[in-house]
Amino acid sequence: MENYVKGVNIDPEISLSELPFNYLPPGVVWMKVRPGSKMTNLIEYALKSMEECRSQVWTGVGPAIGKCISCVEIMKRKIPNLHQITKISYHKCEEYWNPKNNELDPIRIVRNIPVLHVLLSSDSLDSTVPGYQLSQPSQNINFRQVKKITTKRKLRNKRETNTP
């Protein structure tokens, strides 16, 4: 590879219509998890959006799959009785390498990157679909209570960081 220079990467964005679910509830919120995403920001936004819209799709690509799973599990603990459908697929990414010498041919590399999609819904979903899972019932948590808890944690963390 020392005789080549990296060219263009063609990594098309995944659109909502390409998600592997047969049915998506109207107004679904799509949470795209990236490797650099902060989990606290993702969870706070997801909790707020779950108040308005009762379903979310979480997507993690490549190295962000672990973070996506962690976020989904946190959501399932914070909000009881969520229905979940999990789908795994692959996303094609093309890399082009240009030769330094005119004698060599350009190289095209196609990589299949794993993608995880998780549909979470407060409303019931089709339980016959492969990948369906009902979260364990726990005590009922009000969205306002969750908001108070996260606000208290923010204040506590802010006080801890400001103390010398």
From TrEMBL:
UniProt KW Transmembrane keyword: no
Pfam families per UniProt: Alba
SUPFAM superfamilies on file: AlbA-like (SSF82704)
Location(s), subcellular: Nucleus
Residue ranges of domain DNA/RNA-binding protein Alba-like in the record: 30-90
Entry keyword set: Nucleus
Organism superkingdom: Eukaryota
Family: Belongs to the histone-like Alba family.
PANTHER family the record matches: FI09323P (PTHR13516:SF4), RIBONUCLEASE P SUBUNIT P25 (PTHR13516)
Name of protein: DNA/RNA-binding protein Alba-like domain-containing protein
